[in-house]
């Protein structure tokens, strides 16, 4: 169990799994938060628009619901929590929905973030939440997510690694990859800096070679 002072923002989980450097820039250095959250603000705006299509009979929608979990040491807000009427019509059960502007990813980072939201709600409301959904803006489709043991374990383990990572307080060096193209921190991270140094180093070596051969010609 974590103390409140040790809580980390739930959204850091997704960034941590996407790229540890991105997570460190935003949540350790905090220098680039504005960039990151500007991008996230746009997602929220898109989401609010989509919500007009999400209202259905038998569903109550709560937006920006505060979340917290002592077990995971995380807090934050849920984009949308739908409360679905139970089959007997006597109650409601929560169904978290996360809105993303892109498309489903190959890794589990979005699912882990949603699962963490569900685990927060379970702890807060003392209920069991078997599933939720992620709405992707690019495909305009919902992806149903089952919160099975494997995903719950992955979420818990990721939260533990995230706490350790934030405690260490070290920002990893950039490693350029395909995902950098969709990274909101690309301009501040400058992931190709080290690659760009290589031609510079080659240039310097070439200049040294030329100077050496000039000296040999003079003697
Ligand atoms: S630009 Fe690439 S290396 Fe840099 S933070 Fe983003 S994903 Fe990570």
Structure description:
The chain has seven helices and six strands, in the order βαααβββαββααα. By secondary structure, the chain is α/β, with parallel strands linked by helices. It folds into two domains: 169 residues, Lambda Exonuclease, Chain A, CATH 3.90.320.10; 47 residues. Strands 1, 2, 3, 4, 5 and 6 form a six-stranded mixed β-sheet that branches. The protein is globular. The C terminus is likely disordered. The structure holds iron/sulfur cluster. Iron/sulfur cluster (SF4) binds next to α2 and α6.
N-to-C series of helices and strands: EHHHEEEHEEHHH
What is the 3D shape? globular
Average residue pLDDT: 83
Oligomer: single chain
N/C terminus separation: 76 Å
Short overview:
With 219 residues, the chain is of the alpha/beta class. Helix content is 47%, strand content 21%. The protein has two domains: 4-172, Alpha-Beta Complex (Lambda Exonuclease, Chain A); 173-219.
Keywords:
219 residues, alpha/beta, Lambda Exonuclease, Chain A, 2 domains, six-stranded mixed β-sheet, 47% helix, globular, binds iron/sulfur cluster
Give the SSE map.
Elements: E1 8-9, H1 12-18, H2 20-29, H3 33-50, E2 59-69, E3 74-85, E4 92-100, H4 109-125, E5 131-136, E6 141-146, H5 149-168, H6 186-189, H7 193-218
Parallel strand pairs: 1-3, 4-5
Antiparallel strand pairs: 2-3, 3-4, 5-6
Helix pairs in contact: 1-2, 1-4, 1-5, 4-5
